[in-house]
Recover the amino acids of this structure.
């Protein structure tokens, strides 16, 4: 049974790991997303030791995929679990979302899917970015502005909160896309009430 929503008041820079427990067939994968958020700060050695095969068997899914360890960007986070907690090794994971994996998803690769292609995640969450703090914005050619929710340093080990403002110069952006940092002059609150639109990179 899903528990009550949990709240993280110091979310900026908070490390977490995710496991996708997947059912179905290639091109039609459906996933339950399990996250360490709300349960631990996901020590890297413990996350590296997670056996996705064991987790897959315990969750009763066809396969399990381990996303790279990442760090939240918002300042405060409220997230509603959507299922039971599962345990793998030293780590526990909240079930926090459901989603259909992109058609391009390959469980043998570290990336989620094609970059810069919008996807949908079924979850209920509130992200709060506080006045005076930085946000990082990705604008698509059709004028949609995406707010960064997390970053990972699995591709560039030198990427950190301190270097994020210069990330635009390091990205190989598709034509028409733009990345910039902005200091907020008021609080920014992003609510998802069942469905979140996300864009992988």
């Amino acid at each position: 049974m899903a528990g009550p929503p949990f709240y993280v008041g110091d979310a900026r820079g908070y490390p977490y790991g995710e496991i996708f427990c997947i059912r179905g067939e290639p091109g039609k994968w459906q996933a339950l997303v399990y996250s360490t958020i709300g349960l631990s700060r996901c020590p890297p050695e413990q996350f590296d030791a997670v056996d996705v095969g064991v987790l897959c068997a315990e969750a009763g899914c066809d396969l399990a995929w381990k996303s790279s360890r990442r760090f939240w960007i918002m300042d405060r986070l409220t997230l509603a679990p959507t299922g039971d907690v599962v345990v793998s090794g030293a780590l526990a994971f909240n079930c926090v979302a459901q989603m259909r994996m992109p058609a391009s998803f390959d469980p043998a690769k570290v990336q989620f899917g094609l970059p810069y292609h919008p996807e949908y995640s079924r979850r209920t969450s509130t992200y709060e970015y506080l006045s005076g703090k930085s946000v990082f914005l990705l604008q698509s050619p059709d004028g949609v502005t995406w707010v960064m929710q997390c970053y990972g340093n699995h591709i560039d080990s030198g990427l950190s909160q301190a270097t994020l403002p210069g990330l635009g110069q390091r990205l190989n952006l598709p034509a028409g896309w733009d990345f910039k940092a902005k200091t907020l002059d008021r609080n920014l609150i992003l609510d998802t009430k069942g469905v979140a639109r996300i864009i992988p990179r």
In short: Residues 6-104+112-198 form one domain.
